[in-house]
Recover the amino acids of this structure.
């Protein structure tokens, strides 16, 4: 019997975690690898897809000795030095692209990703004007972060280079119109934005498997933030629109997320994420009877003390939620003209 969507829980068919460097099978021709991360979100899942007598790698972990030692074991012992036909990157964040160049050199394979993600990776890596620590600090200060905290918070997010080392200098383009033929199965790219410019998820109808990257996680909502290159953007709207695409996939799809356990319950999870953000938006409206800036609504969105690293992501998320309500016509955007400019929002 099919349960109503509202009462259909997530199920987790695999509860035993793979050891570093030793992948485990989650579907025919699909292997799960797990790599440690040096921050609060302490792991990332990457995937191996069997491609006849070759393999496709999806995402790579950060470029540190622990992760690379794990990859060496996977390539040498688990895959018996089989050829890697592709290295597919879901998006530009360091835990996903970090080892792409290292694996490219190690295997002789090519890197495949969307153009926006490739170019954004290089913009962040090169600290371009649109992605520099200074521009992030200016954005946060505009949205109320105290001047005494600006440098400390902005610099906490500036760890891209140290987690990557070197980026690939070339790539093969993937678009939503493409189909990747891997091991006799067709994998369809599903585009997503809000978390990153042009995130790539992959769905195999034959296997009923979705590699969701960071767009669909089982326990947490991915970071959705405004950044300096688009200060009046609406990434939360983009994110909520993007995850709606997953509602067209079969209910019994096995979802392979970048963080957390593989799960079944794709429609339920999309519903939960939409409800989560709706609740946060309602909370913001309830405190904006008087003008509030992003820094002032942090306690409304986060019921814990935030350190500098957490504040870096929280500020971007707060602005994203305020911008969403502004674009929806529920908040008015105010810009102070006295002294330092501060952007605040008030309920209409």
């Amino acid at each position: 019997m099919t349960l109503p969507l509202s009462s259909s829980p997530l199920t987790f068919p695999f509860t035993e975690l793979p050891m570093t460097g030793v992948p485990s099978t989650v579907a025919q021709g699909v292997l799960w690898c797990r790599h440690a991360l040096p921050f609060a979100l302490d792991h990332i899942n990457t995937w191996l897809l069997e491609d006849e007598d070759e393999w496709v790698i999806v995402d790579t972990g950060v470029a540190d000795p622990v992760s690379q030692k794990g990859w060496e074991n996977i390539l040498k012992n688990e895959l018996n030095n089989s050829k890697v036909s592709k290295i597919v990157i879901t998006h530009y964040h360091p835990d996903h692209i970090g080892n792409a160049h290292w694996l490219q050199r190690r295997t002789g394979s090519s890197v495949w990703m969307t153009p926006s993600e490739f170019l954004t990776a290089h913009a962040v890596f090169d600290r371009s004007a649109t992605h520099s620590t200074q521009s992030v600090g200016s954005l946060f200060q505009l949205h109320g972060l105290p001047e005494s905290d600006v440098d400390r918070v902005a610099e906490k997010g500036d760890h891209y280079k140290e987690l990557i080392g070197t980026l690939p200098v070339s790539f093969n383009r993937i678009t939503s119109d493409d189909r990747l033929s891997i091991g006799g199965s067709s994998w369809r790219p599903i585009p997503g934005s809000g978390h990153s410019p042009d995130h790539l998820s992959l769905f195999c109808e034959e296997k009923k498997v979705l590699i969701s990257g960071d767009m669909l996680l089982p326990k947490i909502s991915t970071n959705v933030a405004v950044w300096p290159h688009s200060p009046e953007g609406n990434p939360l709207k983009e994110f909520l629109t993007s995850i709606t695409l997953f509602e067209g996939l079969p209910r019994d799809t096995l979802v392979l997320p970048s963080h957390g356990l593989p799960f079944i319950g794709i429609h339920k999870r999309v519903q939960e994420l939409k409800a989560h953000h709706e609740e946060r938006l309602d909370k913001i409206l309830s405190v904006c009877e008087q003008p509030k800036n992003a820094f002032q609504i942090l306690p409304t969105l986060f019921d814990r003390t935030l350190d500098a690293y957490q504040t870096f992501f929280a500020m971007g998320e707060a602005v994203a939620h305020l911008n969403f309500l502004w674009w929806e016509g529920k908040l008015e955007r105010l810009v102070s003209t006295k002294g330092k400019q501060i952007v605040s929002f008030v309920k209409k």
